[in-house]
Structures are given as structure tokens and as C-alpha cells.
Specification:
heterodimer, A: Phosphorylase Kinase, domain 1, 3 domains, six-stranded antiparallel β-sheet, five-stranded parallel β-sheet, 15 helices, 15 strands, B: alpha/beta, Purple Acid Phosphatase, chain A, domain 2, six-stranded mixed β-sheet, 8 helices, 12 strands
Chain lengths: 477, 246
Amino acid sequence: MPKSLVKSGAVIDGYTLGDCVHAGGMATLWTVTHPGMDVPLLMKVPRASEGEDPAAIVSFEMEMMILPRLAGPHVPHCYGTGDFAHQAYAVIERIPGTTLYKRLPDLPLPYEEARLLVAKIAAALADLHRQNMIHHDIKPSSVMFRESGEAVLIDYGLSHHDHLPDLLQEEFRLPYGTAPYMAPERLLGVRDDPRSDLFSLGVLLYFFTTGERPFGEGETLRAMRRRLWRDPYPPRSLRADYPPWLQEVVLRCLEIEPVRRYPTATQLAFDLAHPNQVKLTARSERMKRDPLSVAWRRRFNQDVKPSRVKSDVAEQIATSPILAVALDTEEGAAELNEALRVTTERILATLPSARLACVNVLKLNRIAIDKTLDEQGSNKHIDRLVALRHWAMPLKLDESRLSVHVLEAVDPATALLEFAEMNSVDHLIIGARQNSFRRTWLGSVSAKVAAEATCTVTVVRPPRMAAAKPDASVVWG
Amino acid sequence: MLLAVFSDIHGNRQAFEACLKVARAKGAERFVLLGDFVGYGADPEWVVETAMDLVAQGAVAVRGNHDEAVNSTTESMNNEAQIAIEWTRGRLDAPQRRFLAELPMQVADSDRLFVHSEASSPKRWHYVRTTADAAKSLIATPSHVTFCGHIHRPALYSMSVTAKMTSFVPKTDVPVQLLRGRQWLAVLGSVGQPRDGDPSASFVLFDTVSCQITYCRVPYDIVGAANKIRENGLPPWLADRLSQGR
């Protein structure tokens, strides 16, 4: 490959090179223009001449396969690639601004800022995982933000796509990636578990909220392997004011065993969006690392672990959905609420990693000013939360899989639709309109939700009563 | 140009017809037949006749071990395969047998190689079962992409310039770009007797310009194909296995 080809002013496949904006170890980045394209563009060119690190070539091949396959706001759009036979390059959308790496001097960030930031990255990861992709290099310099707020993940040289050959499979004897952020299972050669990205994001969240990297900066294999058995210092031991819910989230991401982490990025984003709903376990209280005896047991029992089955990214995500059930605890008929519980139970039975959000809409008056307290003086909002928990009790769900929400809105259907959208709900369960004059007059909430939701909606009716002749004047929902 | 590549048709008319129809509908401009036209299935005449027509129209065809066994008795086979081949021999006329006997072992076309079993010693009919088998085949040819069949299970291997291998079980209908910087071995599933657990017929589309390969699966009249095997008194397992895809 003639090296002189890549320089300012050169034209490659119709793209005119401008300035070199970044020269990294693996690749150089150039601004480019193309007649007929008025979006800001970048050309990424690998360092691939004789004697260079073969990793640079393989990583670039991986990016060339993956980038054109990705879509959505969380990835840079890819406009074209050129192959190694002539001049290897990828032309991508230029995202304005800088990566999160620039924020390192500001660490630790305020908890609230870190929460919002990481929630956005979790949403981006969820979208990537949905496209059968694992990023495998989540770290501050891989994250940018659009002006509209969405996180954009860049650099796919170490990624794994479940529908494409994994070129890094046998390429390197040692795990390849960014040492401080690498999940423990990566050290064992596992490349097909999307929860590896959740570990890396946990490292980022720990680092951004404490100013310390949980596993240090050690680059040697020996230093990296410690994370296979040694847990990090709990953040609360570093910062006295560290919120317990945040420690719960961080340490769950940093669990050594992937099955003990969040099952999906969407579920992590859900907890970050509802910190007061995070179920606090012993994790949140920890002030010290595990005693050495526990750590040593982990260290020397590595070999007796059950062998791992190959995971399928799509299947793992499909079996860990977010379900929401909309309940009317006030006026809902008992048999309808029971039918909703039976349906919910059946759906949950097949999905051991699903989580359930029980939602109730506190209807606000369109004209009158609502009072938070009812006539008896008790708090309506709290009463409803209690009623939701009571409804969910027979489901015997682990608390970390259950949350309850009371939405206050004038229009219940719109409130439910917004909730489903904001929280990436996969499946909404709702009762059908009931046979009452008031309901008919108000219009059917379930019909609007079923028609307009972007997720699956199940509309539930109580069991059919024998010989109940429908009244001709009543519209059945 | 869009190539449609078929392997291991094995006398299954229903499966081959269904695949040809889908390939034509998807815009295939040229056909490649990777051998094993006969054996196991009950329609060897129709399959060979169709292959002869396609070759007359410019298709590429190579020889498989069952095609060879029709004309010689040296190829060692399991009992059921042997019974099927002897039955097939009686069904084919002289021009059809000659067509099979004269098929080349392999065909190099531009930077592509077509061969039934693998490229290191095509006459020995080795199976590509492992990454090491794939490496042996890839080292034996300078071709960018080698297409083979024989094992009846789809797989896609690649070798980098530093001789590092990758292996992959292709997903149906997901195009994969076969990058220029490395060599690829595309192992096809079988049209007429799939053995990867999916009973639908398997073939491949390859775009020679974009270098994208797509593994396709086609549902076909399995009951019809199986009934015909039974009606002709061939070993019943050859009929039963079609619906199981193994």
C-alpha cells in the first residue's frame, strides 16, 4: 500500500482529504469532503504498512465489517469503506465535540451528573446489543454525545457481532483491549457475552463517581487476572457520602460472574432512571472488600466452575425484557386485576431475568386544582404505591426484579405510552375497557395504548361469564 | 455478478427445484454446482439432466464422490449409500453417466475456486470438519474464496495474512462481506440432504462485486421427496432423515 497516498489534499474514491485530526496507534483520522455530501465527514485510515502491529489490521477489518451494519443515533453513520486491496478506509459521520476522556480532570463528578451520563451510555449499549453487537471497548474515549443528548459509541475494532465471523477469535494469544475496563471473563477468552460491556460501564461509573479506577491501571496479565477473584473497594469506603443505591448499581455491574450483573443494559438504564426504586441488598451496605478467605476461595476454585454454555446475544436480551403492567387499583374490578395477575405470572414464568414495573395512573382533574391529600387526609400517591405492591405480592418476585410507579396525568393512555417509551418497556400488559357507562363515555385507554404503543401489548379480560347477554346499548371493549 | 452456488443435491428434485426458483427470483445470473448430483435421492435422472442443461447455458460444475462412484466401484461408502449408488447406476443413461465421469475435480474462476470436498487433495474426499482442516485447504490455494460442500453442514472459515484462522456458523439470510485482506473457505450446506438439524434446502448467493456471501435456506416438499425414496425401495432411513435434517 503506497503510504504517500494518504495526505492532505489527496483524493481517495472521490473523497478529498482535509486535515489530520487524530493520529493514534492504530489509525489516523482525517476530515474529508465529497461532492454532493454536505454532512461533516471523517475518514479513518488504519496504520497497516509492513511491520506494523497486525492487531491494527484485524481491528480495522472488524470495523469495516461491522460499521456498515449498524444503524441508529448511538453509532456514527458509515458512508463507505475501501478495502485492503487498494486503500483501506472507512468514511464515517463526524460527531462534533469531544469524547468523555476530556472529562477526566473533572473527576469525581457529582453523583447526579454521573447518573445521567451513564444512563445515556447504557441506553446506547442497549441499542447496540439489540443489533446483535458487543462493543468490548467501553471506556471514556469511546463515548461521545450528540448535541441532542444521545450517547454515541465509537471505535468498533474490538467488537463482536453475533451474525458475522469474529476475526479476533484466534488472533491474539492474550486478551486484547483496554486493561482497566476489561471484564474478567474476557481474560478467559469469552467474547460473546453482552454483559462484558456492562462490567466496563460499571468501571466507568465507579471511576467517574470516585475518581479512582476500581482495578487500577495495571496492564500486565498478572495485574489484570486479579479481577477474576479480587473484588474492588466498595465506593462507600472511598467517599463517605456515596449513595447506597449508587453503590448497589456499581457493584452489581462489577460482579465477577456475569450472571450476577444486570441481565441487560436496558435493565441497568431502568435502575439509573429510577434510583429510588433500586432494591438495596448487602452490596449497598458494604464498606470493605470481601475477606481474604472468600477471595482466596474464588482464586483457587477457578477450575471447578461449571463450564459455560455459548451465549447468543439476541436470545439473552429476548429473555430479559422489561414488562409493565398497568393497574387500576381504585376502580378496577377485582376479577380483572386477578386476570391481569394470572397473565403476568404466566409471562414471567418463562422469563427468569425479566423485570416487572407495576404502573398506576393517578388521574388529575383537567380544571380543578388537585390536592395531594384526599378527603381523609391520607397521601393518595403513597396509598397507590402500597396497593401496587400488595397486588404484586402473590407473584413472589425478587425485589430487584420489581418496581412500582404512580404516574400523575390528565390522560392515562398518554401517560402509559410515555412511560413505556421512556423506560424501553418491551411488553405492556393492560386490562380491557370494562362494561360501564363511564368507561364507554371516557373512551378506552387500552385501545389507545394497544394502537399507539411501540412495544408488544397484551390486553387482558376476566374469564367469560356464562349466559351474560350483552346489553345492546353497551359497546364492548 | 450474482452467483448461486449449490452443493450435494443428491437426486432430490423437490429440493433442487425449490432452490433454483428462489435463486432465480433473487436475481442469480450464474449457477455453480459443487457436485454430488446423485446418490440417496430418487430423482437422479432429472437432477443430472437439469445440471447438463445448466452447464450448456454456462454453469460451472465439478465432480463429487457420489458422481464418481456411479462410474467406478473404488469409492468406499457406507451400506445405504452403496445401495443408493447401485440403484442410481441403473437409472442413468450413457450420456448422463458420461457427463458425471467427465466433470472436472475443481474449477478456478477468477480469484475463486470451486471444489467438492476441499482444495488440498480433492481426489481424497476429505471432509472439512475443523478449523485445522479448513487451514489445510486454504494453504493449498491462492484463491480469495474457495467454495466447497461434501460435509452437508454450512460453515465459513477465514485465514489472515499471518495464517490466523476464524471459524463461523453463518446465519441464514445475513450477508457477510468476504474482506479482501484474507482468504475464505465457504463450506456449503446440502441442497438435497441437509445434516445440520435444519431440514430446509441450503444454497449460497455470492455477489462477485461486493464480495458478499449469503447463506439461504429454502423450504421444500420433503414429504414428496421422502415418499419417492420409499416407493423406489431405497433404504427407508434415506427418506426419514430428510425431515430430521441429519
